[in-house]
TrEMBL record, chain A:
It comes from the Bacteria. Residues 92-300 form the ABC transmembrane type-1 domain. GO terms for cellular component: plasma membrane. The keyword Magnesium does not apply. This is Spermidine/putrescine transport system permease protein. It is found in: Cell membrane. Gene3D superfamilies: MetI-like. It comes from Streptacidiphilus jiangxiensis. Its main location: membrane. Belongs to the binding-protein-dependent transport system permease family. CysTW subfamily. InterPro entries: MetI-like (IPR000515), MetI-like_sf (IPR035906). PROSITE patterns: ABC_TM1. Residues 1-28 are annotated as: Disordered.
Automatic annotation (TrEMBL), chain B:
It is found in: Cell membrane. This is Spermidine/putrescine transport system permease protein/putrescine transport system permease protein. Its main location: membrane. Residues 76-271 form the ABC transmembrane type-1 domain. GO terms for biological process: transmembrane transport. The chain crosses the membrane at residues 21-46, 82-102, 114-135, 147-167, 188-213, 246-267. InterPro entries: Bact_Polyamine_Transport, MetI-like, MetI-like_sf. Signal peptide: none annotated. CDD domains: TM_PBP2. Pfam families: BPD_transp_1 (PF00528). Keywords: Cell membrane, Membrane, Transmembrane, Transmembrane helix, Transport. Belongs to the binding-protein-dependent transport system permease family. CysTW subfamily.
Automatic annotation (TrEMBL), chain C:
Part of the ABC transporter complex PotABCD involved in spermidine/putrescine import. Responsible for energy coupling to the transport system. It catalyses: ATP + H2O + polyamine-[polyamine-binding protein]Side 1 = ADP + phosphate + polyamineSide 2 + [polyamine-binding protein]Side 1. One of its GO terms (molecular function) is ATP binding. Keywords: ATP-binding, Cell membrane, Membrane, Nucleotide-binding, Translocase, Transport. This is Spermidine/putrescine import ATP-binding protein PotA. SUPFAM superfamilies: MOP-like, P-loop containing nucleoside triphosphate hydrolases.
Amino acid sequence: MALRTPVRTERPAPAKNVGGRGRRPRPSAAGARIWTWLTLPGTVWMSVFFIASLLLVAAISFGTTDQLGDPRFGTDLGNLKALADPAYRDVMVRSLGYALLTSVICLLIAYPVAYAVALHAGRFKNALIAAIVVPFFANYLVRMYGWSVLLSDDGPVLQLLRAVGLADDHTKILNTGFGVIAGLVYGFVVFMIIPLYAAMERMDTALIEAGRDLYGGPLRTFLFVTVPATRQGAAAGMVLVFLPAMGDFVSAQFMGGPNQIMIGNLIQDKFFEGQDWPLGSALTMALMAVLLLAMFGYLRRTRKDEAEATR
Amino acid sequence: MNPTAPPPRPRRRRGQRRRPVFAIAVTVVFFVLLYLPIAMVVLFSFNAQKSLTIFKGFSLRWYEAFFHDSVLLGSLGMSLEVSLVAMLGSVVLGVALALGLVRNKGRLGAYAGLIMMVPLITPEIVTGVASLLLFKGLGVTLNSGTVMIAEITFSISYVTVILRSRVAALNPEVEEAAMDLGATRWQALRLVTLPALLPAILASAVLIFALVFDDFVLAYFTTGVDPQPLAVRIYSAIRFGVEPTINAVGTLMLAGSITLIGLALAIPRLFGRRGGLDLISGE
Amino acid sequence: MTPTTAPSAAPEAVPAVRLDHVGKEFNGSHAVHDLCLDIAPGEFFSLLGPSGCGKTTTLRMIGGFADPTEGAVLLSGEDVTSLPPNKRNVNTVFQSYALFDHLSVADNIAFGLKRKGVPKAEIRERVGAMVDLVQLGGMAERKPRTLSGGQRQRVALARALVNRPAVLLLDEPLAALDLKLRRQMQVELKQIQREVGITFVFVTHDQDEALTMSDRVAVMNGGRVEQCGTPEDVYERPESRFVAAFMGTSNLVGGVFRDGAVHLDGGPALPVGPRPGIAEGSAVDVSIRPEKIWLSDFEPGMPVVNGVIRETVYSGPTTTYLIELAPGVTVAALEQNTARARMEDRWAGGETVELAYDPEHALVLSH
Ligand SMILES: Nc1ncnc2c1ncn2[C@@H]1O[C@H](COP(=O)(O)OP(=O)(O)OP(=O)(O)O)[C@@H](O)[C@H]1O
Ligand SMILES: [Mg+2]
């Protein structure tokens, strides 16, 4: 993921007075203006439909609703204060916890999977990584629905666990926090596998052999050689999973119950059932703030890593 | 045997690393769990009975039901229409943006490069809320048009990210050669640059079609009441009482998007270029 | 190979290319500085110089790919400074060849003619003739990716030549080829240029290439032309220390000019004859090419100096001796290993020898 854009500063130098023919600016022979015309439509489109609309969300979060429930602009801090209300605060803390746990679980799953596929799959490597990526493009809802059927109270997974004595009749997955996290993990684990896989592919396998000589056991080699060498891929994966997990509302709906709702569900509720758009906007801003913080932390870390690497 | 000779050391076979049993076990379980939910949907779409948990024989009745359900068919039509328009719109804008972005070294280029990254790190729900507010603020009635605009906004970034690295990898001398041979800038772009980018453009178009067709969150926030995109219908159906028809629709959508993504991965190969997977890992 | 077509440039003829005080600035630093050049019609003109000296930038300004920040570019007397490349009667052979990968060889070559709206039948005929000229018969329908480096180079050449431009610009067109192919292409290129009679502006950093192919050479350094003249001029009569050092190997020795001789620091004086342009007592460099130093069979009247052989380097047809004239002052001398020179005639290290030279070959360059 290219999170930073290289900013080039070079600009064509202005044409100077040529051959004594006055100071009239000369048309550029190289004609670089076309690139501006190509950039403009997309930039204007994104500015209007994306940047301006985000600013609108920010503005509305200071607004109020009229008697009809329609949003009004304003300078009201009530919505932002409401975020501190325990009812909302708890949901936000829960969302944060779920998203973090999801990232960690994805990391724990993705490491062995990426390791096995990148380093031990031989010529099936590409086929396997495609097999991981392709279902991700299948409809999210349908996948989530299938997952919820699989984990349902009398679904195959619990039946199997009961048969081997790992679960009793009261064990549930759906309608628990674990169920929601399972949904998030299922939804976004691919975002962790791809960067980790890429990092392991780049890794010099001689490192592992050297690690074997140095540390002996495969576990120690993995911990002391593979993990540090792929740290940046893991960090990118953490962010890539955390961002969508934090904003998700489908998993909590399909896999959880009323006590597992996340911030996304609150936002959805304010916009579609509660008709309190200013409060919904404030919640959206809160969500965005958390994500920007996560993003910022990630960028600072990678900067530091790079700075150390070049030292 | 000579007792003083040192015992022969077991020779370590070099280059043959031990198989990481644990990692492979996890991978196998992972693949089973990855595909099982999908397999369930497909399986129960052929169930002869209404049960969603017990398979009672093969039948196509749910597919039949789908093809007689005018509401779902209307949704399918709308989804196809939205995907097609969003694909065309975002490819045109995104390709132009990628070209301009790479070559435009001024402030505009830097700004464009920045704002096209933001959607990629913004959760869809935020984009959805923002689009909804904008359309309401402009007094626009929500319909398939608003869904198209929102989906284009969301897709431009993908197209641009995919195309940008390809554009940067182009040899600028090729375009100059075309102009040297008498082509104008536009002709050089049309006759030389775009053909060179064609595989990536086609692949990203197919990818966008699949993404938009499957997209739920944005469509949910920006659609009107009737018709609604297929994904939104599926959402309501799952949430408010599941009919096995959903399995059939889901299976068809799975088949469709897997075909499309396979196509997107294969296109560069059809043109004799390497790889297709970097299309995805580029995100 | 010697250039047979001397530039047919009567002084009053309109130059095919004129650079009039052209400069190019990138971020405040000059890549090309106040450049003035006239290139005659039909001339094979080379821009020669070390990496980064501004050769490509100069060529790109002639082609219209870079805007000069100062001065004007004239083609056949017409100011084209602000014309885009497609409006200039100039074509370019790019260093990377820049072939259109999605088009066949024939379509690559036809590209320019199609842009000009040349009738189909004529296009076919001219492309066919060009394919023959560059010896690509039988490959017209192949895609560039399937060709070898030398073949791609020919496509690039054909694609440019088929338009019959007034001037052909070539940016190190042979740099990517291996040595043998390069020699062969040098000959072919020169032949083609003679056949079509088009002005060639040829960029290279290979001095052999520039010397063997060109009618005239401009030696560039740091964005300026140091010297411009026939290959003989720049090789035999370099006007600056840079040109002397850059063109082939040269012995550059510092000293003081007095009484028709250059007095080396703590060493002998090298008689060079009267030099009207050089002030008595000024610090100068003497440049003598190794092959212009005689170690035997002197001709009468040659100045002779003594030196000590420090090293002998045998390299097939020639042997190079490193000879110390004074502590810290060493020159190289080149002897042909001709039929008459036998192994045992070669000097060994430590021997004292006599060096002679024609004062005319000793160039005096003031600082
Ligand atoms: N687009 C550019 N932006 C900034 N500086 C440039 C640009 N193009 C060239 N330069 C600078 O101008 C100088 C001359 O470059 P040029 O490419 O003309 O050299 P050259 O003589 O062709 O060298 P070479 O033999 O390596 O090709 C160099 O110092 C180079 O760094
Ligand atoms: Mg160059």
